[in-house]
Amino acid sequence: MIKVMILDDEEIYLEKEKQITERYFTGRGIPYKIDIYQNADWFLFGLKEEEYDIYILDVEMPVRNGIEVAKEIRKLYPEPVIIFVTNYIDYAVEAYEVNTYRYIPKAVLETKLPEAYSALLPAIIEKEEHYYIIEKKGEVEKIAYSDILYLKKEGKYVVFIHRKGESKVRKSLKMVQQELDSEEFVLIDKGYIANIKHVMKLKSHDLYMRDGMILPVGNSRFNQVKQAILEFWR
């Protein structure tokens, strides 16, 4: 299912963007979900609750503009597509600073928004979320790879630090890394594995994570960690 969030303070355009989106995905038989908002603060209030594949944002809005909203989205989610729709061109350069996919004038929504969806569709469909399953006595927990920030060793346990909190599994760090079986998870020190999707900066032997945590990078692993980060960013 493709999840789309639309934020526009003008009801006439909000409805138009929703109708274009419904028509596009219905016509192709693709399962979809659309959530709409007219108020940026209401949307941001629940930002951590759900991640969407595509965010369609009006640029010019009262109190918070679309650029500000996009910056908040990017703090949590590096991968989703952001499309700006607007009657103004003044923000075009600034929009691309938050890794915007398209900047569409509202006058050409009927043609340009479906074109954007067609260009995006193959990559979105190909992308498949992976999950790590933790089984305990009387409990099963599913954690999305994209939600995992880093893992750390605590005694006989591995602790998953993720967007919704922390989870523990009684296994070795090496075993968990093998089970994850993904290049996005990099061993950075004896007791830590980081998800490079959530790395913001590598400075000296410190790894700055999206949640503000600073993790140590071991001397023997520094070059490998640096190379993994560079390859992902490129």
Describe the structure.
With about 230 residues, the protein is an alpha/beta fold. The protein is built from 7 helices and 15 strands. The strands form 4 sheets. A 5-stranded parallel sheet has the order 2-1-3-4-5, sandwiched between helices. Strands 10-9-8-12-11 form a 5-stranded antiparallel sheet, with helices on both faces. A 3-stranded antiparallel sheet has the order 13-14-15, with no helix packed on it. Helix 1 (about 10-25) packs across helix 5. The protein is elongated and about 60 Å long. The chain starts with a strand and ends with a helix.
Brief summary of the model shown:
The chain is α/β, with parallel strands linked by helices and 234 residues long. The chain has helices at residues 11-27, 40-45, 66-76, 92-95, 109-126, 173-180, 222-233, and strands at 2-7, 32-37, 54-58, 81-86, 102-105, 131-136, 139-144, 148-154, 157-162, 165-169, 185-189, 192-195, 199-203, 206-209, 214-216. The mean pLDDT is 88.
